[in-house]
Amino acid sequence: MTTTGEEHTEAGTGPWWWVGWRSAVLDAGLALVSAFECGGEGVRFAHDAGLPAPVGVVFGAVSGSVLLVRRKWPIAVVLVSIAITPAQMGFLMGLVGLYTLAASELPRRITAALAGMSFVGMLIVTFVRAHQSVVRGDVPMGSWLVPFASLTTAIGMTAPPVLLGLYMGARRRLMESLRERADSLERELQLLAERAEERAEWARNEERTRIAREMHDVVAHRVSLMVVHAAALQAVARKDPEKAVKNAALVGDMGRQALTELREMLGVLRTGDGLGARVPSVPLAAVGAAAAAAAAAASRVVDDSGGGEGPSLAEIDELVGQSAAAGMVVALSVEGDMRGYAREIEQTAYRVVQEALTNVHKHAAGAKTYVRLAHRVSEIAMQVENECPPEVGAGSSVGLPSGGNGLLGMKERVAALGGVFVSGPTDAGGFRVSAVIPA
């Protein structure tokens, strides 16, 4: 089936070969007008051919009604119009047929051939009829006007419908191309919006993971030391009141420090733009902005959640001292010259040592622990290793719970900076945590 510039590209809803009822009604109306025209012209044709008038009317009506199938068989319509041209019938059918043929998807050589045949047929018939009229004296004109009138009539009956059909066909193809491009662009925008939503969701999940890890690092160490001191306080409350007072003061200091760090972190969460926001179904620009805001907010939380400038390597001595005050036998050794590192590197190194000491308090209470820190040319290395605890189950005597996320959090922190993290038991029954971070 051929298509014309008058047809739409959407799914057909009309009868038979028409794409819509409007097209069917239009073609039926054109066919009816063409049938009346050819039927009226058939009276003269029958008179000239010596046939009964009804025969000419029926022949003309049947020929004109062929216009009904112009969308499905435009070549047939043009051929019928050329065939009845000598009978001076089907002028409307010839015009509409040539327009439909030129606007269809048929090869242009077929259109040119049929348009040429129609032009030649119209030229010959018009020339013969005009010459006869001049000879009979029906039309007072010079003989030189016959070729001119024949040529202009043939051109007027073929060129306008062909040119208009070519224009409408090119316009329809252009509109279809633009519509396809618009549909493709809409699908791409929808895909990009979906990907932006996925990125925003990933940013939110990453944000939650990092906040949970930061909360764990901030709270676990302080609370673990508080539990250890509370257990010691309970043990010496009656035997050594002075030591009990000292332990109570340490518990209070650590609690205040934990509350301060929590307050600073919660302040960051309250002021962070876009944290945990749902991404609505909005245009792509808004979705992309939401994703970028969520990612930026997550990055701010990671950078700022430690409060102020965050912990640094200069506070390692204090960190080790707090564990020693809680009863741990811990030794700190530093290799190389201390120098300044990027903020996230110092925070990560501090958190690794902090979490490793917290794990010793939880799982190996009473075990001697070694903290080693090495400043190298292009990296910083840290290692926390504890010996086998003197008594199995000592870590559980103070009732320290374990969330099971400490080692995972350390590994994620170090890997995010391109470092290497290794942890595992030692041959002597202890446990070792090692990390190397590029400087």
TrEMBL record:
InterPro entries: HATPase_C_sf, Sensor_HK_TwoCompSys, Sig_transdc_His_kin_sub3_dim/P. Residues 168-206 form a coiled coil. It catalyses: ATP + protein L-histidine = ADP + protein N-phospho-L-histidine. It comes from the Bacteria. Keywords: ATP-binding, Coiled coil, Kinase, Membrane, Nucleotide-binding, Phosphoprotein, Transferase, Transmembrane, Transmembrane helix, Two-component regulatory system. It is an enzyme of class 2 (transferase). This is histidine kinase.
